[in-house]
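Reopening closed ticket. The problem is back. First fold of the pair:
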Amino acid sequence: MHFKALSEKDRKTVQQAFYSSIPVLAGYLILGMGFGILLRNAGYGVWWAAAMSLFIYAGSMQYVGVGLLSGGASLLTTVLTTVMVNARHLFYSISMIETYKNTGKAKPYLIFALTDETYSLLCDRKTPEGTDGNRYRFLLSLFNHSYWVAGSILGSLLGAALPFSTEGIEFSMTALFIASFTEQWLNTKEHVPALIGLLCTLLCLLVFGPERFLIPAMLGITLALTLLRGREESAA
């Protein structure tokens, strides 16, 4: 359907979803290119990059997946690693249950496409005035997904055409997480949840070590935020 044939509300929904996705556009293109280059250097071509980004769509896990593929990891190792790396999705996605409750046929894709960066844009449950909320969330998720796929394909093609040193490139995902945290900190007045996340993570890092801190940290953060929410509801 031609863009001009859409209703005013639909046009505004598409425009606002795209505008909101622009910060992710820059990050996902660069990070996707990093993944594509790593995968190409490991001996896997552009179709692998496209398929992994289209059907897996888990940035940090895809970076880890390059090592698993090239190292010949077993199925058990791959499953356990995936659970450890992506465990955070289980905890923060719980807060989106009400938001995605009445999204109809789009719900499976919205759940699949809930990355860290998409979550950071949608977690406040607010949508631009004059837009269709469910359609806005779907389009924002779709735009972000397309950026990641495009970046991965571009990186794979560049990796085949130009020589690249991939030393340290895996830090790009950490940099994106820091940028997302900083943006949320600057755009919200309530910093208690962020401080809880930092303190729980630091404590678990010290107690369990860098190899085992992730799951305990997520459990601690979830418990602390649940208690905090219950106290606020009681006070209200």
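Second fold of the pair, where the issue appears:
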Amino acid sequence: MTKKIIKSPKLKGIKPFRSKSKLGEAPGAITYIGNRRKQVTAITTINYSESAYQTKGVSVDMLGAIFENKQTSFIDVVGISDVETIAAIGRKFELNNLLLEDLVDTMQRPKIDEYEDYVFGVFKMLYLDEHYQLVIEHVALILVENSVLVFQETEDDVFGEVIKRIENKFGRIRSRGADYLFFALLDAIVDNYFVVLEDIKNKLELLEEEVYDNPRKDVANKIQLLKKEILRIRKWIFPVKELINRLIISEHPLIKKETKLFLRDTFDHCSEINEDIMLYREMSTSLMEMYMTNMSNKMNEVMKVLTVIASIFIPLTFIAGIYGMNFDNMPELHTENGYYYLWGVFILIFLGLLIYFKKKDWL
């Protein structure tokens, strides 16, 4: 007996969560998963100490000199789709291939992995572009001795203030090591979550006013889109609190006790962020319920007006129907001015019912 194969329907606009090229590959295979292919990887280093500061673009071969000086280095790698360059950087710093696999996977959930010689973290960098549209960018941080490597998809990031603090020779960051730089970059990512959530809050308040004042059909679509955006943000933000806590309780030698004090402050920020995003999620759900309730009330108001109009015309239609019958022996038909009397009755019934409905507060 031949088995019948039933193909699942193709749904427009739905893409597979992971690239099919990843299927069947061995763990540690470096395969880029994302939308920004054919990027040229650019590497910029910022080397600094309390008394010195230098920034320059470098090649992969020049990265070996990083270990020769005792300065703290911020190594910014922009463009992660070129897996050959990423693999070459990994060989320079002797990074595990499993780490590199997660580094080039833009769908990787936030995580922290501790290795013997370095600490690896994957996060999502959220910010608003010039058109106030949400941008979610994959970013990886690697803390090694005296250096922090940052791998990101594009040049746009949230690290501008950190770089300004590095340029300021009187800043605290110049007098501390790479673990504090790791914290500063992570703190910049977390602080920018507040900006994104503030934008979500403003959108919710505007939609709330629209729901109260004029619940149009497109408002429901706006609420649904915003709800999806909140869920997407929650997916990338919610795990960060636990990851920060792991860094605080970590006994890794690269993370100093003094830096953990600053990480506790970031942990508090994450707690506040998680509470806010849960609140906004509930608000978006309540907004949809409020919209449905208001639309139902609006429909009820329409039905009430139609019912009142129908109630007024029922007795008028009844009287008109009686005198519309074609009987010869109907005395009222021969009454002088009977037509005008009937109109008077119609008007009295109409006014009487209006007054009655008004007193009952049905109008």
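Update: turned out to be a display glitch only; the data is intact. Strands lie at 42-48, 53-58, 72-78, 111-114, 119-128, 134-144, 147-152. The radius of gyration is 35 Å. Please close again.
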